[in-house]
Every structure is written in C-alpha cells, then in structure tokens.
C-alpha cells in the first residue's frame, strides 16, 4: 500500500511541471478567450456579461464573412500549391540522390527564414516601381503588375510567397514518406509492366497519401492562422482584400479594443482550425494502408 | 513456358564480384531450387533472371531469346518476393489485376483470370480485402495469385516462405509443390533452407560464394554430395566430418579407433592409397546402434535432444564431437556409452585439402 502511494506521489511530482505548463500556457488563455467572448468589454477594460451578443454581431458582420472567405481562399490556394510543388520537389530530390548536399540544402532553405524576413524580402522584390518582379515582366515585354497593391492579385500573391517559403517544408515531409516506401513494391510494379507515369499515379502517389495528409494537417494549422506575412506586407489591405479572420480579430482587439468581439472571432477561427484538423485526421485514417 | 540458359555470367557490385563465372541450364517445366547460405549470390542470380539487376558479362536466355538488355516487364516472368511486395493500398483483386491492366487486357478477361487464380489458391473470399487485413499465409497466396494470373513463361520465387511460421511454412511448401505440378511452368525458387530445397525441387543448385557447387536431384545431392560444403549444407543436422587415415585396409581415426575399410565402403576403398589422409563424412542418421558388433566404437553421450520420432545424441569419440540420430526407444542419457558404427556404404570420403568427394 505504501509503495503504491509513494509511486502515485512520484508520478504526480514528475508530471506536475507539464500539467502546470499546459494549464497556464494553453488551457487558461483558451478558456479566458472563451469567457471574454461572452463579455462586453469597454475601452477602459470594464467587462459585463453580454451573452451571445458578440456571436450574433459576428453573423451579421459583413467584414467577418469577408475575412472568413479570404481565410478559406488563401488556405485552399496555398495548400494546393504547396502540396503540388512540395511533392514535385520531393520526387525531384528523391530521384536526384547524387545531388551535392549544398544544392539540396539550397532547395530547402526558404522555410528556415523568419516570416518577417521573407515578407520584407518579397516586399522589395514585388515593389511596383523598383522591384525585380516588374523589372523581369517588363524586360519580357509583359505589363507590370501591382502584386500586393491589387485587390484581385493580393491573395494569390500572398499564396505564392507562402508557397515559396513553405514548399520545402512539405517537400521534406514527402521526401521522408518516399524514403519509407518499400522498394520491393516498385520492383513488383516494374515486373508488372507499369510505366514511370503509371507507377507515379497508381503506386507512388496513393502510397504517399497518408504522408500528404500529415503535411496537410501541419500546414492547415499554420495557413488558417495566416498572420505574420500579411501583417508585414499588406496589413490586410488593399481595401481589406487580404484581411483574414486572424488579421480582423487582431484589429478588433488591438486597434479598436473590442476584446469581447475579438475573442468571439478567435474562438470561431479556433473552431474552424479544429474542424479542419479533425476532418483531415479522419481522412488520414481512411487513406492509411 | 520456357527453358533458361545462363552462360558465363559475371556480376559485380563495384569492386566486389558476387558471381565470378556461372553457367546453368534449366529445362522447360522444371522446378529448380537455388540454395546456399546468405551472401552466396542466389538472390542476385534470381534478380538477374527477373531483369532487376544488370549483367556485367555473359549471357542469359529465356527460351531462345537473349534477355541481357530486355527490361523486366518484357521478359514475361512473374516473381514472388520475400516480403510479398503486395500493393498495400489496393485490394487483393486490384493487386492481382494490376499487371493485366498494364497489358491493356479487357476487364472481363481480367476478372475471369483473377477468379480462376483465386479459386485455385482458395482466396476467392478475400478479393475485396486489403493486404493489411490478411494473415501472412493469405498474403503469400495473394502474391502467388498475382504471379499466376499473368500465365508467365517462368515463375521466380525469392525466399517466399521465410516470413511464415514453421507450421504454415510446411503447409505452403506443399501447396507450392502441388501448384508446380499442376501448372507445369518453369520455376526457380531461392531459399537458404535446405529442407525447402529437398522437399520441393526437381533439381537443386547448391551455391557458395557465387559458384555452383553441385546441381542434381534432391536424392543426388543428399546421397552423393560433390564436396564437403554440399555434404555439410544439405541434411539436418549436418553431416559429421571426421579426420582419418587409411592404413592396411583400415580407416583409423586420430585417437586410434579404427574400422575395416571394406566393411564401410567395399568398392571405393580400393581407390584409396595407404597412408592417405582423409575426411570421413557420416550423416547423423547413418550411425547404427550395434551392441553386438566388435567393430563398433564407444560413443560417450554428452547431450541428448529428443525429437519425438527420433533422438539426436551428441557424443565424443575418436577425438571429435559428432551427432547421431538414434531410435527414441534407446532413451540415452548424458554420460552413457553407446556402441555405434557407421552404416555400410553410407560413409562419404573427402580430400581434406580440397574438400572434394573421393569417388
């Protein structure tokens, strides 16, 4: 009996730091945000219970729906581009196994840059009058573009920048998946008479699906909370054309000090992230082999 | 269906020569087992036949066609891999149909072939399952089914039983043998298990270090091993090797124990010169319990392994450690002394320097 109690005490002592960390750093802020989303908070910090008023306001708020649309548009576009380019890059690196190490490192270096640095770099490249992007376009006889200053182009441009930065990350995950595929399956396919294209589409990609879904989960969490790159490059503009739900919530909280409403927006965004992750987990189970 | 001819085959991996110079003929319809220890080049040879490895020198023919540069897909061979190599994301039906789809066969014909092969292998109830939902034995059958549907010229098996437990291995072994008799297709089977080789093969090819040591029927390689390697590799437990010398019509062991040579091998003893050093080879099952024979030697039992049907007795005699297979009725115990004598005409003689058998 004593031994059992002493073991329990030991277990409690050993797990206490991680439990305390989880409660203080994760559970408390999350619960506090849920609580605040049901409050009316004045600019002076006075709070009173306001029921679901913030959520009702959200449903009626055109800016919320705009932010949700931009969040999903940016998410779908970026994720698609990153999966396609990441898989292609991984297949290239997998086939070019003799490629010198520093060239391989060069391919995968962008995601090591802090988003702020990447954002500043692309701001300079995409500058409408002085940037290299328009210089290249005009050199080729093409009309210059407004890139981040155009409401129609801003989301695709942000998606391209994010794809440039995060494709190598996806490629690394896919490369790990490729390296773990059983070689004898490829030999069987060779004997079965599958061409390279047939092998890619009938064997490699289906076998990579669980890995691709893992990459989707990891990128989805980041992409749905897309913030830093937008904040550095456009601050949500032009004309709210790149105001994602995260940017909108930030503005409501820290520019307009409507913390209750900002809390409701953030809880909604969290629910969206959670829903997507749960759906992807189900997908991962469905495609597991 | 086709014969296989291999002429002066050389295979190197970098600076390492795995197969130095190998020639072999496998007639049509024959079930040939390549057997040897790990690293002897048997799997490499099989992969060369499959087209999964290139040839450095020499020629490989399947039927009348030289296939050195023919890709695997065009050789009309089917291979069963050690790990089965089933497509894990496909159902059993899709696995079996894949090669036929790649050939552009019609759906109706694919389904007919799949059903026929599935019935033959008793997997027709598993067609909609994925490999992860199958047992080891079922996966093995699916791998064979995938090979059978193609109706290939040659079947290649790369240690397909090594992942099965002992009981299932014996069952599948019998099934493959029955299948080979039913299909009458040329089959090349690689294994390191001499029991698989003995039980399934029409002919056994024993290999060591990329060199064929002996080619023959299971009876031939067991009864007339070409050298000490074959003699030691085929048979379980291994043949006992005993250093000896021929003197005045007697075979003398190192510690003075001797047997009349003519009694052990009346014909062959005439070819042996007096004083010639020899290595005697005696299989455990060829020691006879001979309490009334004055020529029997005294075997000091050191270890007993009862197998049920018979008993393995480890003993010391003539300065060597050896194993004898005796009747379980003897019920020997460690420390007992058993009078044993090698069975007449069952003793093998080898040259100690070369290991070659003396005819």
Quaternary class: heterodimer
Average pLDDT rating of chain A: 93
CATH topology of the largest domain in chain B: Rossmann fold
Question: Architecture of the largest domain in chain B in CATH?
Answer: 3-Layer(aba) Sandwich
SS content category of chain A: mainly alpha
What is the distance, rounded to the nearest whole angstrom, between the alpha carbons of the first and last residues of chain B? 37 Å
Q: Report the helical percentage of chain A.
A: over 70%
Q: Looking at CATH, which topology of chain A would you report?
A: MetI-like fold
Structural class of chain B: alpha+beta
- CATH homologous group name of the largest domain in chain B: P-loop containing nucleotide triphosphate hydrolases
H/E series of chain A, N to C?
HEEHHHHHHHHHHH
* Range of strand content of chain A: under 5%
Helical content of chain B (DSSP H or I, runs of 4+) = 10-25%
Keywords (chain A): Membrane, Transmembrane, Transmembrane helix, Transport
Transmembrane segments (chain A): 12-38, 72-94, 106-125, 153-178, 199-218, 259-280
Organism (chain A): Chelativorans petroleitrophicus
Domain ABC transmembrane type-1 (chain A): 68-278
